[in-house]
Design brief:
Oligomer: single chain
Number of strands: 15
Radius of gyration: 25 Å
Strand order of the largest sheet: 3-2-1-6-4-5
Shape: elongated
Low-confidence stretches: 251-276
CATH architecture of the largest domain: 3-Layer(aba) Sandwich
Number of helices: 11
CATH class of the largest domain: Alpha Beta
Strand content: 15-25%
CATH superfamily of the largest domain: NAD(P)-binding Rossmann-like Domain
Mean pLDDT: 83
CATH topology of the largest domain: Rossmann fold
Distance between the termini: 41 Å
Largest sheet: 6 strands, mixed
Helix content: 25-40%
Order of helices and strands: HEEEHEHEEEHEEHEHHEHHEEEEHH
Length: 329
């Protein structure tokens, strides 16, 4: 693998960002890619490396984003089944592409999900026990004293447990709320939690953010020891992660890419259903970016997007043929 790809993968993992790794496992010429070529695709569609040209890359980006979302790897055949030269194996996703210069590619796309990030605020015996348990699971775990904790130490994908136990609870929770973590729990009684949240509400913190603070943190096991409290908190975090609740919370409040005006994706186009910020090439049916990189063309007041200059040129020469498709271009 290219050393730069390894460095980029390590940096994304350090930042706690999920990404997909795409590997070309087979090619049929002509194609600008090579067998063994690899690229990293981020959730935002940024590409590091090389896996193909103007026709192949948008398809791989689209499929990689789906892989990141559902956590399931995919084996893609970019081309047509007859180019593959054998019956298409079960489980392979076939995506027709019309650019003749691309040949055919078989690309394996796998998700790379970083280890969960847990920030424990406090130095109590329970906090130390929780940190030890989380590290057994290979979670990225930070144990920070309440007075040293800042909102910069957590983020939208982090889980934060405030276990200061009366020593600056309000300040620690306020800083944690500012980080907007996927999970924020306060260790303490319901009465103590109500007092802390009431104080912060009086300070003007939005109710929507305070409502996300879980107090008491962890599964309700009744009266327990500090070790059992640590187990209860970790069990709750594992349960929420397994259900997908933390992933949803980590992206809540985000802004989706806007849908370009005039674009109506084709539901059964070969490239799949277009997502916000994407469109369907009316010539070849590929899913493409609804941006300047998608070779936009205004046709009767509707902006059409294409995988490359070739498809755009075909449309310009015979718009009647392609404008009748469900893309409405």
């Amino acid at each position: 693998m290219d050393v730069d790809i390894l460095k980029q993968a390590a940096e994304l993992e350090r930042l706690g960002q999920a990404f997909a790794l795409a590997t070309v496992v087979w090619r049929q010429g002509p194609s600008s890619s090579q067998q063994g070529a690899r690229a990293i695709i981020t959730a935002g569609g940024e590409v590091h490396g090389w896996i193909g040209g103007a026709c192949a890359e948008p398809v791989v980006i689209h499929e990689a984003q789906r892989v990141i979302t559902d956590g399931t790897p995919r084996l893609l055949l970019l081309g047509s089944p007859d180019q593959f030269g054998a019956p298409v194996p079960d489980g392979m996703t076939v995506v027709p592409i019309s650019c003749q210069s691309e040949g055919a590619l078989e690309v394996y796309v796998e998700p790379v999900v970083p280890a969960p990030h847990l920030v424990i605020v406090g130095r109590s015996p329970m906090a130390h026990t929780l940190a030890g348990l989380a590290r057994v699971l290979d979670w990225r775990t930070e144990l920070v004293a309440g007075e040293d904790f800042t909102s910069a130490q957590a983020g939208p994908r982090s889980m934060v447990v405030v276990a200061t136990q009366g020593h600056g609870d309000e300040e620690a929770v306020e800083r944690a709320v500012a980080a907007r973590p996927a999970y924020l729990g306060l260790v303490g009684s319901s009465r103590r939690g109500a007092a802390v949240l009431g104080y912060l509400a009086d300070r003007g913190l939005p109710a929507g953010q305070l409502d996300r603070v879980r107090v008491p943190a962890g599964l309700d096991l009744g009266r327990t020891t500090h070790r059992e409290i640590a187990v209860a908190i970790l069990a709750e975090l594992v349960q929420l992660r397994a259900s997908g609740a933390l992933a949803a919370a980590g992206t809540a409040g985000g802004t989706a890419a806007p849908v370009s005006a005039g674009i109506t994706p084709a539901p059964d186009a070969p490239g799949g259903r277009a997502e916000p910020g994407e469109a369907i090439d009316p010539v070849c049916g590929m899913t493409v970016a609804a941006t300047a990189a998608g070779h936009p063309l205004d046709h009767d007041g509707v902006i059409c997007y294409f995988c490359g200059p070739g498809c755009r040129r075909k449309f310009e020469l015979d718009p009647v043929t392609y404008a009748t498709r469900e893309t409405r271009c």
